[in-house]
Amino acid sequence: MKAVTLADLQASVQDKPAFSQLADYSALCRSFLTLLARQRPTRIISPSHANYIFFQYDRACRHRITRPLNTNLFIESATDFNRAFERLTVFLGDLRRYQTAAVERKGRRTYAASKEINRVVYTAQQAIGCIGDSFDNPNQSRKRIGQLFENLVRLIIQEVGLECEPRTVNIPIPGNSGLSMSYELDMVFSRNKAIVASETRFIQPAEIVGSVKTTSKDRIDKVFLDKYLLTKLLGRPISVVAIFLHDVQRAVRGASIFGINSTFKTNHFLGYSVALNRLDGVYYVDPLPEMTTNARLHGQIFDFQQFLVHDLWTLSAE
């Protein structure tokens, strides 16, 4: 059997009809991790943050360097990832049947405490990101990487039994007959199958709007503004949540190109929370330490597992 090459993985990432099910993400991630084990690219530890690493590809890829990877979350073994993905699949089935009570079932408290959900989602998405980093032109894959993260989150929500689809809404502007604003929403989710369609003019009271991005950099203000405008224009409260992968990027520090910088704008986030409105939930697969230690952020930002295991169900309760 022919070994999968990096070129094969690049083609898979660019394949538009692919990734229609969670198993597609698992298969790509396993192939990438297997390739890492076979080719053994240079593994570089960040001198500023020892829990972050980079992989440097060989000469065939012009020694390109991947994005920083959090080793507290990234699963490097294809075998370990496969087992973790299988456990996640079983747990998603439990969530579908038992909702928030799923964690009360035998053995599930231990599973939830392990935070393995975040690790599987992080590894699957960052494998895609690392493959994207191998392209000649990073712009070739940047948009696609973001699209695949949105799709991954939608598939997970669908897997636990909720309706979840992207949507375009056309909202009339009050006092301006015939004028409307068009909004493209990453996802709208609900427990009610009858009211969710891929395109509709309105957002129903039982529906939640979700913004899904790999990072909040240059995007966090729009999420707050969307909630404010949607609520204002529709004349009633609209629930809006934001889901991010991480807020970390490579930074040049002195002679080193392997430093780590946060892209999260704390004061902007808090300012928007006060001047506009609080979001109904902000979730990170890889939350920054500041988000758990800063008292002003602690009550507003949580990890993705919290969303999936608890908040998803309370937000969408009928």
Looking at this protein, list some descriptive labels.
single chain, 318 residues, alpha/beta, Restriction Endonuclease, 2 domains, six-stranded mixed beta sheet, 11 helices, 11 strands
Describe the protein's topology.
Elements: H1 6-14, H2 22-39, E1 42-45, E2 52-56, E3 69-70, H3 78-98, H4 108-113, H5 116-132, H6 139-159, E4 163-172, E5 180-190, E6 208-213, H7 220-234, E7 240-244, E8 248-253, E9 256-262, H8 266-275, E10 281-284, H9 289-293, H10 295-298, E11 301-303, H11 304-315
Parallel strand pairs: 6-7, 7-10, 10-11
Antiparallel strand pairs: 1-2, 2-3, 4-5, 5-6, 8-9
Helix pairs in contact: 2-3, 2-5, 3-5, 5-6, 7-8
Write a structural description.
- This protein has 318 residues and is of the alpha/beta class.
- The chain has two domains: 6-158, no CATH class; 162-315, Restriction Endonuclease.
- It is 43% helix and 20% strand.
- It is built from eleven helices and eleven strands.
- The protein has helices at 6-14, 22-39, 78-98, 108-113, 116-132, 139-159, 220-234, 266-275, 289-293, 295-298, 304-315, and strands at 42-45, 52-56, 69-70, 163-172, 180-190, 208-213, 240-244, 248-253, 256-262, 281-284, 301-303.
- The strands form three sheets. A six-stranded mixed beta sheet has the order 4-5-6-7-10-11, with helices on both faces. A three-stranded antiparallel beta sheet has the order 1-2-3, with no helix packed on it. Strands 8-9 form a two-stranded antiparallel sheet.
- Strand 1 and strand 2 form a beta hairpin.
- It is globular.
- The chain starts with 5 loop residues before the first helix and ends with a helix.
- The model is unreliable at 194-200 (pLDDT under 50).
